[in-house]
Amino acid sequence: LILLVMLVGDSGVGKTCLLVHFKDGAFLAGSFISTVGIDFRVNAHTFPFKVRICCRIWDTAGQERFRSVTHAYYRDANALLLLYDVTNKASFNNIRAWLTEIHEYAQQDVVVMLLGNKAESSHNRVVKREEGEKLAKEFGVPFMETSAKSGLNVELAFTAVAKELKHRTMKEPAEPKFQLKEYVDKEMRTAGCCHS
Ligand SMILES: Nc1nc2c(ncn2[C@@H]2O[C@H](COP(=O)(O)OP(=O)(O)OP(=O)(O)O)[C@@H](O)[C@H]2O)c(=O)[nH]1
């Protein structure tokens, strides 16, 4: 069984960098090369550490002109990591539009998680953490801030989604239902990484 996780959000919010960090543990510095259409990055073997499922992660293009390509893939996605950039207000304001699209094109039970990326760049920050939290609450999705540069919550974001998908797939009635939001909150409290 292959589960499909897609990274979506405006161009330049850091989707490719987040994935590269997760995969290679390194920040992709230097020039910004925009993703063209759908880009396959990671295959099944990225999750052997804690979660034994196969996850394929797709990095999508944020640019408007590739949107129709992305739409076509939404319906196959099991989970969507929706990113905005905390140093770019427009990318945050566009989250509502992204969520509307997701509701329109994705599967009804798709797992969505909102990520405020570039959280380490405190000098350029224009979106407060509380704003992200509020928006996520409004739409009933889990939220965390991440940084592909410092590595903040990168592994947690992917692991939490993978765990949720695993629990859904296993459907073991004896086990209590996995609560993605509670898991994320707990992990962040434990790590003490809530404040950036
Ligand atoms: N400071 C900081 N910069 C970041 C971070 N993540 C990405 N960047 C920078 O943001 C720019 C865009 O990153 P990408 O990962 O290519 O963005 P993308 O969302 O994949 O863009 P598209 O492919 O066009 O959709 C690059 O110049 C990165 O170096 C981060 O966490 N912190």
Automatic annotation (TrEMBL):
EC number: 3.6.5.2
CDD domains (alphabetical): Rab26
GO annotation terms (biological process): protein transport
A cellular-component GO term for this protein: membrane
Organism domain of life: Eukaryota
Membrane topology: Lipid-anchor
Record keywords: GTP-binding, Hydrolase, Lipoprotein, Magnesium, Metal-binding, Nucleotide-binding, Prenylation, Protein transport, Transport
Single GO molecular function: G protein activity
Subcellular location(s) of the protein: Membrane
EC top class, as a word: hydrolase
Cofactor: Mg(2+)
Cited SMART domains: RAB (SM00175), RAN (SM00176), RAS (SM00173), RHO (SM00174)
Known catalytic reactions: GTP + H2O = GDP + phosphate + H(+)
Main location: membrane
Family: Belongs to the small GTPase superfamily. Rab family.
NCBIfam families assigned: small_GTP
Protein's name in the database: small monomeric GTPase
Organism: Mola mola (Ocean sunfish)
